[in-house]
Amino acid sequence: MKRRQGWLFFIIFLLTLSVYLLVNYPLQLGLDLQGGSQLTLQIIKEEGKVTKDELEAVNSVIDKRVNNLGVSESNLQTLGGDQLILELPGEQNPLVASRVLGKTALLEFRTQKKGTSTNLKALQLQRLSIKELIEQYSSAEKSQNDNNLKVIQDDLKNIEQELNYSSNSNDLYGKLIEIKKYVDKKISNLFIKTDLSGNDLINAGRRQEQTNSNWEVLLTFSNSGGEKFAEITKSIAGSNQLLAIILDGESISEASVGNQFVNTGITGGSATISGNFSAENARELEVQLKGGSLPLPIEIVETNTIGALLGSKNILKSLYAAISGLIFVGIFMFFNYRILGFVSVLSLVLYGFFNLALYSLIPVTLTLPGISGLILSIGMAVDANILIFERIREELNDGNTLTRSIDSGFQRANSSIVDGHITTLLSCFVLFLLGTNFVKGFAATLGIGVLISLFTSLNCSKTILRFLTTYQSLRQKNFYLPKNNFSN
Amino acid sequence: MKYNLELIKNKSRIIGFSTVLILLSLLGILYSTFNTSYKKPINLGMDFVGGNETRIERFCEEECSNFSPDTVLENLREISKNKNVLSNIKLQFQNNDKLISIRTPYLSIEESNNLITNLDNIIGPLNYASKDSRLIGPKLGKRLLTNCVSSLLVSLLAISLYITIRFDKKYAFFALLALFHDLLIVFGIFSWLGIILSVEVNSLFAVALLTIAGYSVNDTVVIFDRIRENFKSKNEGYNETIQLSVNESFRRTTFTSITTLIPLLSIMLFGTYSLFWFSLALSLGIIVGSYSSILLAPSLLLKD
Fold first, then answer.
1. Do B262 and A329 touch (CB under 8 A)?
2. How far is the C-alpha of B142 from the C-alpha of B88, rounded, in Å?
């Protein structure tokens, strides 16, 4: 008897501890409950698997970019070896993040091949006219002017003929973009790579140009980078060769180096890119350059956005579902098992508290699938109680005393309970290992639930029952069984 | 109260009933594979094929004005840039025209935002705080599908191994037969739901199947445990012992199913829409699972 009382105090202690934990360390809510966006980034590698180092490197670049964007409370984690998950809580638009994160941001400095001046000039003109066509297209779309669209189509055909290239896209907009890419590529092919790249930067900034409202991006080189830059500019100073700054294969600026730099090159370790940037574009480029280039390209493969209002609605709905589930299970148990049922309700309440406390301790982020795992595990936790109570009922029907029946009921149900829990745990384990983020939440709460229910249904129920049966007045058999069970 | 299920008398009926259920499921799966637009055994949802789904509420005073989805789509087509996307778009009104749900093939975040802005122009104002949007690339979809199928296979293998170690061959075989029977029937029901109501299955459906697997085996194990125990302690005939064991564990099995169904029903009634079909799949699995544990698996053990 002493030992049982020890258990009783232990359970009360655990309950107090759980309440304390829950009050002081509130549960972490997933995005589907608090609102926000979640982006899944897939690392693209043509051959072989993404190595751990590559994953680390991508992770750190993305992390820097996210920080430079100034997103509050964002959370970045890796998933399954070649994916990253970025969470942006609250009403933050994932659009900006997606534009900044998706680009490789590989910055190169190239010098023009000798004798390509005429070629380059023609291409630059073509690039300009395509850019104009794209702008015209947007305004023609808005004004629903089909005639204008026709004109754009004809102009595009002329350019295609000049380039001797025909585009494959189905719609006009796609065609324009495709041709622009083609021209960009031809332009960058007129330049030769140098050993100066984005790796030589130590900082990037932006400022508004003095003469007009455009923005320019300011690059600051490291010491060695500054020397390389001086060397390169010296080699082409005064000639008709241009220096191109190329981002992800697209030349964003081509400039000549004046005669006065023939002896030293451009020193001072800094350069500006001024290519008609809007404030927004300049900021995006700045963030990308500050974070460095990605060692492997990434693609955004999934985006989930949940409004804050919907999140709080989801919490309420889940709460209703959980509470009504508990109440109805409680009524069912009490109706069928009387005092035993009451005991199972008590241990269910304990079960709920222990579960939630563990979530805040581990911590488990609570999501919708997670909550459904928790609600489902209520049913499974009661299952163990039912197995035990059925055994007790049989023992009582066989004419055994109450204490004896309770003891052997718990003992004999043990093996079935453990068996059943193991099969469920196996499923949870597999789900947790192989599942996606979404599925992991379910597997985690169900798995934790199954483990805790082993403790509450075996130990807590027994302790509470023993405690209740110390009162003489609660020892009548018909408190434990509805009458009709006795008739037999 | 004693239960008296006449297992021995009804053996052929039980097996016949299960055979009919299995044939119906197979019929659904075959019909779905050959006679539907999606040509798959089951109607795969966005998780597996990629796409864009957005649900958003409108701000309305008292009642929301009535629009037909076709007019809205017509308007959308007129003001939208990317005409390709709009040729394959589904738009529905729910909750008295308050909630708009829109499905398209995969879009970039930018395109999806544009779509919602256009929608706002047509039937706005929209309540952005109620927005729920998912974009899944086709690549990820394929990956999720293989992921789900492999999780299912691995965990079925693990459960099979556990059962074969735990019981002797005959018991293990029938327990697993009952398990596959349950999974096949739930799968078949969702094939039919896909054909008739165009219900789609997502990764949560795979989770439901896995949970059903664990649960159904659990139920069967409890009954087989009881049969083994009774073979040792009771001196009755082989078939009679099995029937007795089933009747002894009948209350336990049904009660457990009921206490698990209650929370699932409350999720279906009060929970969020994304969990509705998940809970339904689980509930069906638990009902079929209890049936196969109580009636089918022990009947298969009976000797003629």
1. yes
2. 20
Which of A314, A301, A443 minimizes the C-alpha distance to B206? A443
Residues contacting residue A375 through CB under 8 Å, at least 6 positions apart: A318, A321, A322, A325, B263, B264, B266, B267
* pLDDT band for position A485 (cuts 50, 70, 90): very low
B145 in contact with A, Cβ within 8 Å: no
Tell me A460's DSSP state. I
Question: Is the ipTM reported for this complex over the cut 0.90?
Answer: no
User: Is the backbone of residue A399 left (phi > 0), alpha (psi -120 to 50) or beta?
Assistant: left
What is the C-alpha to C-alpha distance for residues A51 and A49, in angstroms, rounded to an integer?
A: 6
Number of neighbours of residue A137 by Cβ within 10 angstroms? 20
Residues A398 and A391: their CA atoms lie apart, in Å, by 11
Instruction: Say whether the peptide bond before residue A363 is cis (omega within 30 degrees of 0).
Output: yes
Question: How much of chain A is in helix, strand and coil states, percent to nearest 5?
Answer: 65, 15, 20
CB contact under 8 A, A386 and B137: no
For residue B62, the distance in angstroms to the closest alpha carbon of chain A comes to 19
Residue A248 structure tokens: 């992800």
Predicted confidence (pLDDT) at residue A487 exceeds the cutoff of 50:
no
The total of other beta-carbon atoms located within 10 Å of residue B240's CB is 13
- Hey, what are A331's tokens? 């009524």
| CA pair distance B187, B285, nearest whole angstrom | 9
Give CA–CA dist A303/A288, Å, rounded. Answer: 21
CB atoms within 10 A of CB A446: 28
Residue type for position A384? A
pLDDT exceeds 60 at position A389: yes
Instruction: Give alpha helix (H) positions in B57-202.
Output: 69-79, 83-86, 109-123, 138-166, 169-197
> Where does A435-473 have alpha helices with state H?
437-455, 461-468
What pLDDT, on a 0 to 100 scale, did the predictor assign at position A418?
81
CB-nearest to A310 from B130, B162, B210 is B130
Question: Tell me, what DSSP letter sits at residue B201?
Answer: B
Contacts for A66 with CB less than 8 Å, ≥ 6 apart: A74, A76, A86, A97, A101
Triad B110, B113, B114: Cα angle to 5°? 85
Alpha-carbon distance of A419 to A450, in angstroms, equals 12
Answer yes or no: are the C-beta atoms of A471 and A12 closer than 8 Å: no
Whether the CB-CB separation of A406 and A465 falls below 8 Å is answered with yes
Distance set, CA B230 to CA B94, B206, B224, B226 (Å): 56, 36, 10, 6
Three-class HEC string of A247-270: ECCEEEEEEECCHHHCCCCCCCCE
Q: Is B90 on the interface with A (CB under 8 A)?
A: no
- Set of chain A residues whose Cβ sits within 8 Å of the Cβ of B262: 325, 328-329, 332, 379
Question: Are the C-beta atoms of residues B96 and B39 closer than 8 Å to each other?
Answer: no
> Which member of B56, B206, B263 has the closest CB to residue A378?
B263
Across A10-70, where does the E strand assignment appear?
A: 36-43
- Compute CA distances B70 → A140, B86, B104, whole Å: 25, 12, 15
B89: three-class secondary structure by DSSP:
coil
Confidence label for A3 from pLDDT (cuts 50, 70 and 90): low
List the one residue out of A201, A3, A207 whose CA is nearest residue A108.
Answer: A201
Shortest CA distance to B194 belongs to which of B17, B66, B29, B26?
Answer: B29
> What does the alpha-carbon distance between residue A1 and residue A462 come to, in Å, rounded to a whole number?
12
Strand, helix or coil at A430? helix
Angle between helices B203-233 and B238-270 (to 10 degrees): 150
- Residues of A in Cβ contact (< 8 Å) with B81: 141, 173
State phi, psi for B100 to the nearest 5 degrees.
Answer: -105, 130
pLDDT level of residue B84 (50, 70, 90 thresholds): low
- Alpha-carbon gap, residue B153 to B141, rounded angstroms: 19
